[in-house]
């Protein structure tokens, strides 16, 4: 699966799902989609009330030319809440800051009331930001509810088969910040 190699070359290893899990998500769920062109690759879930962007990769020769904004604008035209995960700015990863700036420039907000901590294969915790865009003001309680659904339906889809565990422990990973 050449598209999987593109994703794994770009995204941190701990954020990559098992290739077979992604293949099954795409093939067996009407809501989960893969779009691939020479310019971009996107895996996302289109639920009735929101869109969850699992992976968005604009190819290096297309970056900075507005392709990512066009993709997001197309998703925004659905008139639904859009949610995604992004790693915090990491000193050793210059792409992390660029990615966050891109989403903020496109109207996404950080769900600053939500703490999102996942665990990698070695059971080490790592923090992610939950970013969202909404056509109208929306409380972060709704964002949290939809993020929990995305984690359950996407990250935990057949995860016990592929990893021997749930990828996201919903009781631990998503919490209100105090």
UniProtKB/TrEMBL annotation:
InterPro entries: Acyl_CoA_acyltransferase, GNAT_dom. Residues 1-137 form the N-acetyltransferase domain. GO terms for molecular function: acyltransferase activity, transferring groups other than amino-acyl groups. It comes from the Bacteria. This is GNAT family N-acetyltransferase. It comes from Paenibacillus arenilitoris.
């Amino acid at each position: 699966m050449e598209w999987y190699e593109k994703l794994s070359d770009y995204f941190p290893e701990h954020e990559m799902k098992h290739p077979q899990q992604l293949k099954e998500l795409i093939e067996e769920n009407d809501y989960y989609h893969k779009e691939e062109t020479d310019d971009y690759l996107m895996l996302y879930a289109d639920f009735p009330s929101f869109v969850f962007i699992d992976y968005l990769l604009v190819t290096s020769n297309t970056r900075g030319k507005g392709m990512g904004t066009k993709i997001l604008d197309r998703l925004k035209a659905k008139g639904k809440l859009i949610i995604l995960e992004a790693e915090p700015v990491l000193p050793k990863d210059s792409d992390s800051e660029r990615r966050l700036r891109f989403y903020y420039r496109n109207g996404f907000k950080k769900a600053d009331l939500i703490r999102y901590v996942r665990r990698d294969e070695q059971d080490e915790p790592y923090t992610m930001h939950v970013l969202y865009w909404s056509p109208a003001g929306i409380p972060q309680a709704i964002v949290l509810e939809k993020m929990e659904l995305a984690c359950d339906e996407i990250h935990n889809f057949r995860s016990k088969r592929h990893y021997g565990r749930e990828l996201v422990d919903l009781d631990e990973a998503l919490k209100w910040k105090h």
